[in-house]
Amino acid sequence: MAVLSRPRRAFWGDVRFLIGIALVIVSITGVWLIVSASDDAAPVLQANRTITEGEALTSGDFQVVEVGLGALADDYLGPQDLQQGQVASRTLERGEIVPTSATTDAAESRSTTIVIESSTGIPEDVVSGAVVEVWHAPPLEDGRSYDVPRILVAEVIVRDVLEDDTVLADASTRVEIVIDRSDVADVLAAVTGGSSLSVVPVRSAR
């Protein structure tokens, strides 16, 4: 009596073999992508401190890092792109990779800085880069009291807090703020008119 043998399963039809091949291909592709990304790494500038809007950009403000940006490399500032006369067009956070859109020529900047005195002092977390409002209370005719406080300029940026460490220092604090040139006249008028100014935080720097 003849014995029928079971047909052997085709080697290429083994599903586990096909899955193994697919995994090998995926692994090789992943390694290739990593190597390609490394090859595309370009030197770009990274801010080593908070730089506020309108500040002049110098090489000492940055460190050079290698980043794989691919086609986006031209959108970020490289060491060779830093030119004299460039300023920040917005606040750059410490550790931020600098996009070219965040810089402008000083002649085209609409901002400037002015120092004011906040009569009420400011919170400790209001530092360089913080966004604040400037309020003012105009003096009344009696010369001894002030009118109701109101917003003078909304959302300006703190460039620096100028601490007074002298023995005669009072509760007021001098603050250097970045302000649009169109608002300078109003602020100077408030200062020369004897208004009591106050800096109120909108949000602090990160």
Automatic annotation (TrEMBL):
Transmembrane segments: 15-35
Pfam families, per database record: SAF (PF08666)
Domain SAF residue range list: 42-104
SMART domains recorded: SAF
Alphabetically ordered keywords of this record: Membrane, Transmembrane, Transmembrane helix
InterPro entries linked to this entry: SAF
Superkingdom field: Bacteria
Keyword hit for Transmembrane: yes
Protein name (database record): SAF domain-containing protein
